[in-house]
Structure formats: C-alpha cells, structure tokens
Hints:
Radius of gyration: 15 Å
Low-confidence stretches: none
Shape: globular
Structural class: alpha+beta
Strand order of the largest sheet: 1-2-3
Mean pLDDT: 87
Largest sheet: 3 strands, antiparallel
Helix content: 10-25%
Amino acid sequence: MQVATVYDSANRTTTHYVNGKQVSQDKLSASMVVPEVSIGAASIGNWSEPYSQDPDFAVRNLNGAIDEFALFSTALSAEEINTLYQTGKP
C-alpha cells in the first residue's frame, strides 16, 4: 500500500493519494500557506510513547510496518505519484 500527501504552496493545495490514485484535495486559504516547510522534532510511524499531558493530544496507532519513506523538496504531480506507485509495487 502506498500513502502519499502532497503540499503544494504554489497552487495552495494539499492532496492525498492511496495506491497512486487521488482520494482527496483541499484548497488552502492564503493564511494557511507557508512558503517554506520546516520539520522539527518528529517521529515516523508513531514509535514514541503515546502519552502527553496536553488534553488535545491524539494517540495514533500504526498497525503494520513502513517499508519505504520518501520526502521530496518539491510538490509531485499526480502522474509522478502514480509512477512511484507503479514502479514500487511487487
């Protein structure tokens, strides 16, 4: 299974894909667009302890494994996302 999210600041959209196919797209208001994305302390796959004093903290569970992870410096097109899926599927 491939899950992909594309944040495109130029077109003000966030698009989600499953197995190379678009499943949703959100148009962002100008106030939601940031020209440069910076990722601070983060965990991939929710390996950190699922506990926080913050009442708005949501416990997320990953039941499975992550085979590959990729982070690109530019927004990929729908065709590029589909090509990555087609190339990587067994």
